[in-house]
Structure formats: C-alpha cells, structure tokens
Amino acid sequence: MKWVTSLSTKISLEAAIQDISQQVFSLLGDKSLDLGFLFVSTAFASDYPRLLPLLADKLPIKKLIGCSGGGIVGNGQEFEDKPAIALLIGHLPNAEVKIFHLDDDQLPDLDSPPDRWEEITKVDPSSAPNFVLVGDPFSFPINDLIQGLDFAYPNAVKVGGLASSGGMGANALFCFHQEGEYKLYRTGLLGAALWGDITIDPVVAQGCRPIGKVLQVSECERNLILGLEGKAPLSLLQDTVSDLSPSDRELAQHSLFIGVVMNEFKADPSQGDFLIRNIIGVDPRSGAIAVGDRMRPGQRIQLHLRDGKASATDLEEALVNYTNQMSLEAPNVSPSAALMFSCMGRGERLYNHPNFDSSLLQKHLGLIPLGGFFCSGEIGPVGGTTFLHGYTSVFGIFRAKNS
Questions:
Q1: Helix 114-121, helix 142-152: angle, nearest 10
Q2: Tell me, what's the pLDDT at 75?
Q3: Residue 296 CA from chain centroid, whole number
Q4: Are 320 and 205 in contact (CB under 8 A)?
Q5: How are strands ordered across the β-sheet holding 95-102?
Q6: Where would I find the FIST domain in this sequence (predicted)?
Q7: Residue 219: CA count within 13 A, CB half-sphere
Q8: Which of 77, 182, 394, 403 sits at a 20 to 30 Å CA gap from 374?
Q9: Residue 351 near residue 308 (C-beta atoms within 8 A)
Q10: Model confidence over 332-371: pLDDT tens digits?
C-alpha cells in the first residue's frame, strides 16, 4: 500500500490538473492508481463539468470519489479562501474498493432488514468493509443513510463529510466508477467501501469542554428537554452559567452546547464521552430547552463550551489517545495516509492560526499523505455509533490491517 497527496493552487483548471498529474507520476511512477479522493474548491465552480474529463485524460485512476468544498486540505496546508485542488490517491494491490452513488429515493425504509441496505450498496458485510462518504447536504437524508449503514454493517467504520459553500444545486460530487468511466453528480451521496488488507481508524474531535454537573433527563418530548433531575432545565442552565468566570459567561452567550453521554454505563464521563448537540431554543415560560437531536428519558447530559483552546485540547487528546491505542494494539503497523473532514466553522477563523488541525495531525502521526476539505457536516463515530456532526474534525486514518 502506498498513498500520495497532490495539491495545486493554480487558478487555471488546466494548469491545476497538469500540476496534480505531474506530482502523482513523480511520486507513484508506474504503480496502479487504484483509489482517489478528490476535493475541489468552489473557485472552480464554473469548471466542474470540465474537471473529470481533464483528470481522466491525464491520470488512469481506477476509482475515485470527491466533492466541492469551501476550503481544501492537502499535506498539512488548509486553503480556506483560495483556489485549490487536492487529490489523495492510493496504490492498493491487496485491497478491494466498491464505489456507489445513491439518491434519496433509493433509500430503504428505516424498518427494512439489513439485506435491503446491502442491495443498494452492493457490498457484502462478510467482507468486513469500511466506508468513506461524501454527500450533498440539500438533497440527501444523510442521517437516514448512516443509521441504515450502522444497522447493516455494525462493525464498519464510516467517515466523511458534506459538500460545502454551494447553495441548493450548486455543490458537486465527483466519481470514477472504474477507469475511464466518470460522472459529475449534483445531488445524492457517493460512497467508497474498502476491504481486504486495509482498514480505517476514526479520530473524532468535537472541540468542546464540559462545564457544570452531569444531569439526568427526567422528562422530554422528541428534541425538547422538559425536565432535568425533576427541575426546569432552563433554571439549571442559568445556574451553571452564573457560576462561570466572566470570560466563560461571555463565551456562553454564543458558544454553549449540550453534551449527551454516549456510554450509559460509564459512571464518571469526561471530555470525549459526549455527543455534542446544538441548543436551538429555550422557552422562558416552561423552562424547556430545545436540542438539535431526539432525546429520551434517562439520558445524561452536561453543558459544554466551545472555543479555540477547547478545540485544540480536544483534538490533541484524541490524537494522543489514538497513538497510545495503536502502540498497544498494532505496534508494527503505521498509518499510511489520512482524510480530514473539518467543519467550516473551524480553521483559521477559530484558531487565529493557519493549518491548525492538519498540522496537529501530522505532529502526532508524522508527515503522512493527507487530503480533505471543510464541510457542511462531518460524519464519524462516537461511542460506536455513527453521527452527523457540526463544528467537528473527523479524520479517517488508513493503514494495513494488523496481521
């Protein structure tokens, strides 16, 4: 297995494709180009229809998925407001890849058996696949898909992101089903299933720090929390915020979130044990809080704050935990490459520093090939279940299976 990233910031599409192609050939030589992940900034929006024919003419890539993005990531650099194209490409002689495209009308009912989900992906669960997913946020019910994939492929890792900085109908999904067969989609979702001597390790950093106490939901209705510990949720929220430092109280005015404990059996949850969800409204009369997810009685929650420092600490801890885990479970296997799916709300606007998340990844994993983009939503697992996130960085780390 060998991966490389090629990156171009040339403003002409022809020049950028030529630049990328030359980099690939210089790094991979005559090795087969088995799988590519392509990320293209919206600066090239008018050229999307021409992009795949130009790329196919230069590079004999067998299979590829990718999408448009408001910011592009390649080899430790993050181009948030500049024209850029990044291509992460792999020579995978001992791996298998299946590419699929889905529209919303193809999804089974959520009560359907697992084999209905297997039919639409045409991927056998016995092959032990993992998935990379990129989709259009306006035309596809991504939550339904990841819930169905978790049902049909419970042991599979699913990572990915939603195309960004394009309005309805303006995003682009790029696909090579096989060598010489390319397709530009404006709707739906693209997936790549990988199996064989390859695996994907997920690292998910939601970028928040807990405040106050862990509280149990005593009453709720759909996404409304009506009671916490038998009390009005809003009063408990106000009590927690009033106990904060002046700077944190100011931060809570615009960066306050709910963290839902994912492991119900963990007595003392800490940072990283929560699924972070938005507070989307409060009712001063009833004291109810509306959360950006369905709740159920008995769940435990804790308020969280997000800022650059919390995001940096969360990602650092996630990467340290990953490297420690790998040193124990697969000490003879090193990461080969990584995909980065980061929220549009992160990057330099959050950290006041360029290339922060990608540089931190390479600090801990070395200068491995890295490609990705800034998303309208990030897909990754928390507590063994796959979710659509916001304000998050999700990394999909490729390596050979531990033999």
A1: 110
A2: 86
A3: 25
A4: no
A5: 95-102, 189-196, 130-135, 158-162, 378-382, 385-389
A6: 32-232
A7: 9
A8: 182
A9: yes
A10: 889 999 999 999 989 898 899 999 999 999 999 999 999 9
